[in-house]
Design goal:
By secondary structure, the protein is mainly β. The strands form three sheets. Strands 1-2-5-6-9 form a five-stranded antiparallel β-sheet, with no helix packed on it. The protein has a two-stranded antiparallel ribbon with strand order 3-4. The protein has a two-stranded antiparallel ribbon with strand order 7-8.
């Protein structure tokens, strides 16, 4: 079993003030099956699973405030998609192969304080 994966993204930083930054990001991800086969031990036949493809657009944004040279407050929001793994997509239940197509988007909200820069 093999997959092809393609991903491209862009990020932008806008300095609103000397201490406040607005960050945005956008990415496109694609995953497609190249070859997936099943072996039937009863008939000793190898058959191809149907091909499948998933695409996703991810977006993120953040506000970062620099309190001083060592501390930063960051508030970010992101929508990220997790593609199902090969194991997730092809499973056996009651002796039958089931093709599962899963794309799990989730919203993430984080706030971090303080963050120290590495020396």
């Amino acid at each position: 079993m093999s997959d092809g994966t393609f991903s491209v993204g862009v990020e932008n930083q806008l300095d609103l003030t000397r201490q406040l930054m607005f960050l945005t990001g956008l990415s496109f991800n694609s995953r497609s099956s190249i070859k997936a086969q099943d072996y039937n031990s009863s008939s000793k036949e190898i058959t191809d699973y149907p091909s499948n493809r998933n695409n996703a657009v991810n977006i993120q944004g953040a506000l970062q405030y620099s309190v001083n040279a060592e501390n930063l407050i960051s508030l970010s929001v992101a929508r990220k998609t997790r593609f199902a793994t090969t194991k997730d997509r092809y499973s056996y239940r009651l002796g039958t192969a089931i093709l599962i197509r899963i794309s799990l988007p989730s919203m993430l909200l984080t706030m971090i304080y303080p963050t120290k820069e590495s020396s």
